[in-house]
Protein 1
Amino acid sequence: MRDFKLVLKKELTDILRDKRSFIMLFVPVLLFPMMYILMGTQLNKDYTKNLPCIVDVEPGTADETLYRTLFEQTGVVDRKEVKESETEDLKNGDVYAVIRIKDGGITLLYNDASTKSAAVKDAMEKALNEIIRKSFEQNLQTRYNVSAASLQPFRLETVKLSDETQISGSSTMASIAPMMLVVIIMSSGVSVAIDVFTGEKERGTLEALMTTQVSRMSLLMAKFTATLCISLLGMILSILAYVISYMCSDAAKYMLGGADSGAKLGLSFVQTLELVAVCLTLSIFAVSLMTLIGLHAKSVKEAQSQMSLITLIPTLLAGLTLFMESADISLAAMWIPVFNSIVSIKMIFSGTASGTAICCTALSCLVYSGLMWIVSVKMLRSEKLLQG
């Protein structure tokens, strides 16, 4: 333990001296809130009033009367004149939509490549359907003295299964959070792992350390622990960034399923323990993999090339889980490394995690980490390691 503490203190001191790599760990705390605040400015825009649109209607006709009844009185449209052409103005973003009214028919031309234009299309459809419904109900009551409610054969009431404060499994947050957490956990310690293993090998200092009285097991354990500390710090800071983002941004609330959904960025005590277990075992797996790559690589450049897959693979696997339901994932799939952690975090956020699935995920990460540790120990004891 004395040798372990000595080497660990040396590694942590060296890490703290590299201020640039250490400061990079705090980037999520600043980046996530800023990202959600910018998203909130777009999500909070009102696409129901004064929408800049070109209106193509013949003056003095019944079509113009229809336009004034449907649009002008409701204040939905802010009528604009054509600058270049209807399509060019729409492509350039000068207007959100083009409304063409002819012979009592309404054609709405919108730009599907524009988020604003697509939002206007949805707002227009909703506004028109509401106007048509009210007009129908009014005519029905005036002409026939019949209420529209009496003509409805049944009334549909929907009740969601999850608790009101539970994050929806289909919400954006439940889909994005696992990917972001896993990518940060898998990549936080990459620069440290490259430096403490391949970097020292390339500088020739690893050979000097191995010739001292410090046992190679203590040396490996200390370097592993130092890298694990940085990985866990990155994980904690990323979770902190999510909490800050939720507190200061309406966009985070929207991503939970809508500002009015009642969902909160909160986990029960059991869910918190499950999340900690999954993230901790994933960190151990990630650092074990980094250690193996760091010992195997012959140069820093080679190590950087190989460790880039540590960030790429989780991103690709996270994309596979975006449209997957928890019920569709078999227990055998929970033994697939990295994939099982992404799925487990998604289950925890959506409240559908089972104890068996969490145990399989944590156990598999530890088993794979143990296997990589055995290989790493054999490599460290081999003299071929110093010949890289």
Protein 2
Amino acid sequence: MKPVEKKPDPPQGAGKKSIRTLLVTGLCIFVGVLIVAGVIFIRTLFLLDRAPLAPEEPLSYPEEAPQTPGVPEPGDPPVSQKPAEAESSRPDTEPADLNASGPPAEQPPRPRQKGTLAFVIDDAGNNLEELEPFLRFPGPLTIAVLPGLPYSAEAARRIQAAGKELFLHQPMEALGGQNPGPGAIYSGMSPEAIRAVVEGNLAEIGPVAGINNHQGSKITRDPEAMETILTLCRERGISFLDSRTIADTVAPDVAKRLGIPIGERDVFVDNSQEKSAMIQCVEEGLHKAEQQGTAVLIGHTWSRELAATLEELYPVLVERGYSLATISRLMEDTG
């Protein structure tokens, strides 16, 4: 048998050295991992600090479902109506924007009805050029034509074609002796003569809705003459408007006695030809309409600024709560 060889014993202290080497190596690796992790962490913080912040999104709320106006949901209390808004010097409503998204804005309530105005334009027949701007007026107008003038019949035809109300502007004698023009009624005329004059003028002007006086301060103080004229109006079924060229006119008293309703002028709008003065006269008419319910305002075709001024004021008057009417409609509504 061969003798067993004995391996030499490891040098003393070699095992301890291996353990120490492993510990040092592990510690180095651990420290290296910590360093790498620290570098990555610091780099991440640095990049985050430099990155821009995203803007905050606004809070959004779900939109309520639109409801049909005037139809309350079950269980809802009754909806109370808003009171009318205070009057403004400019229009309260703006035109709706058809391109706007979303439901239309609630419109303010319409202004309350404050009164009705009737504008009467006298002295047509002298000049067709002066008449034309009034024929283009967008609202109702009563236009009175003088008889016996070169353009009387043509003016009457154009007025009717334009859809305006036609009156005979009947000339009557004045206290001051001014010439009232052709086809006039004078004091001392018999009832038959008065009838003949008025009927001849009506035949020239054509079918009219009524008559008002041109001048006439002397005739409108004469009860017998006014009775003849008003009786003729009743027989013809046409209106009479007293232009009130004199304060002590008897036309209202005679009309009351005969049971005939008549109209009466409240304001002359163009005694002054200044635009500002005309606007002030219209304001006076508005005040009377608000107090009385109606007002009659008389102007003339020869007023240079009147047609343009009325056209400018028309939408403002409607916006402020006033309506416009012809004399015959005004008398129908108030009769």
Protein 3
Amino acid sequence: MTSYDTHRKTIDELTLMDDYMFAQVMRQTDYLKPLLESALRMKVSKIELIEIQKTEKEGYDSKGVRLDLYVADESGVIYNVEVQTSDKKNLPKRMRYYQSIIDISFLSPGMDYKELRKSFIIFICNYDEYGRGRCIYTFENTCCEETDLKFGDESFKILINTKGNRDEASDDLKELLKYLDDGTVTGDYSRKLDEAVKAVKSNEERRLEYMLLSVWKNEMRAEGRQEGRQEGFAECMEQDAKAMYEEGIAPDVIARIQKVPVEVIEKILGLRPV
């Protein structure tokens, strides 16, 4: 690689509010389910699917998004959980776009709209998007003229502010927010989260993966291929795979970074018959 981002955190500096660490810890239901229940203030059904760093696009040339955490429970409810550590503006419209991407990716041709699942888009932020001091803002579409009339589309958007006023929060939520905000362990759940964070940092495979991701993301920024690039997704993946391979990164590691089967990468690289 030709350049490195000296300001990017090392894995030892990561906290649970960093997207890589968050995804690695929350891929385990024992840690994720209590977080969802604290954030939603309700019980959550048994979790059946967890996908980390899930890439979704509406179309071949449309703007794609990479979801930190995509979750489905046994009752069919979808949860998208993101961590946000800087105010990138337009957060509400980003959440709107995420919702549309999730809906379109689920609804196949021929399916009825009634089959769209109940969904929660949850952003955990270390700043207050609305400046009103709350630790949780929950949004549901309602009628402007009849405020007690719900729109009924079963889509919810939740913003969690780790620095908000916690006076009205449950004890479980207070513990979670405190740990997310400054890493302080105040109970059994935050202790388990802290142990999970330390376990990721001491795992050699995770350390290697994070290093490769960090270097590669830095290289992509240097080349100007950022989130808003207009190239086709498949073309970008092919270019990135070939460039990584030229840098000496093994096909199986490239596949893990690209979130595709290793056979796909081997075909792109000409290591397997098409």
Protein 4
Amino acid sequence: MKKFLMILAVAGIASTGFAQTKLSLEEYLGQVREKGLDYRGSQASAEGLEKQSHQQDLIYAPTLIASYGHMDDQSQQILPFNGNRTQADAVTLGLSNKLPFGPSISVGYSFNNITLSNSPFLTSPYYTVAPTASLSLPLFKDFGGIQTQAGVHKVQYQLEAAQKGAAFQRGQSLFNAKLAYWKLALVRSELNIRQDTLERSQKIWEWTKRRVARNLADPPDALQAEAAVRVAELDLQMAKERERTARFQFNRFRAVEKEDVPEQLGTLEESLGSLKAEVPSAPPDRLDLKAVEDQAKSQKAAYDEASQNIYPDITAFASWTGNGLDKNNQFSAANDTAFQGLYPTYKFGAQFNLPLDVFTAARVSEGYKQNYEGAQMTYEDKQISVNQEWKDLAGHLQDVDKRLGMAAQIEEIQKNKANQEKTRLELGRTTQFQLLSFENDYALARLNRLSLILEKLSTLAQAQWWLTTEKQ
């Protein structure tokens, strides 16, 4: 007896070890976030594009310039003042910056150490030092930095639109993963129902064949029962095919290539009980709508940039250079002289550039304007579309609730009808085939209710997805 109980215990432990692991929806979505290529690709694109959207800020970033050069000039000279060889070491440091409101400024510092060979008049080596400061200011085209800012915004809005599109795609990937989870749960429930229907149909067929053999029923009754079996087999086969397709889709979102899904999934009723989504009357500011808006802004910036090409370019400039020279190879003396401002060089003036083919420039600008107007209309159309989609989704949620309530009532009626038919069969007041028909009606009612639960889950998940995007 003890040995028998031990065998039972070992068998129980073994069966527990081989039981299916239950995989909840949140655990599955965690696998999708961690391993899913579609989700991770959208996530990487969204993060990368967000960082790229700041690249145009580099236009206004200060730039450091540093250079060193050595010259050895041994060319023949017409005049002997410089001797027959000149060697020089030159160092230059500079800092330049384009300001957002238009001007460009730069400061710099340079020095040269020059050595002359065989010069009859000049002593060497000696130093020259020159600190500089300059300013340029556009007075017509790009006045106030309009054109430069437009170029910056054009690229920035393009990248921001792409980033929001990728973020919207990332949310859509999770939404599709939820649907894949629920569809697999639905088709697995359908498999169980179809298998149960087939088993009952086979029992009725066997029972009918025995009655026909005893001349208690006509041969068409057996044919009708056999037809019911064949239909049940076909329904089961089609359910198996849908289940296989659902498994592939389920695994794809978590980057698993194999066909098998060994885990046990939660029921649709469990998901419906846990999924909550408030549906406000106003539509959310969805990321795909924001992306279209940024595209329109980018086209507006492109038009602003192109329209500046019609105007003449008038740029005022001014610069100051301090000059220091020491013939005794004393760097400090040359440096002090340069910064004392005793021998400065001033430059100021203006430069005028006028594109002669103004007609082409105007035509190009008009093209950009039309692109902007088209993008603006696309954005307004998208706003209308989003509003309509939101109203339709809210209405659809109410409708599916009504249909789900009706389906639940029908399922309960079909269940009661089948149960009462069982009682009638026990009393000999009906047939097995009639009971089978009633039980099939009940099975179809169960499937219909489960399908409506999936439809409601899909609608709630879509509302949840759209409401979440405005916060990203």
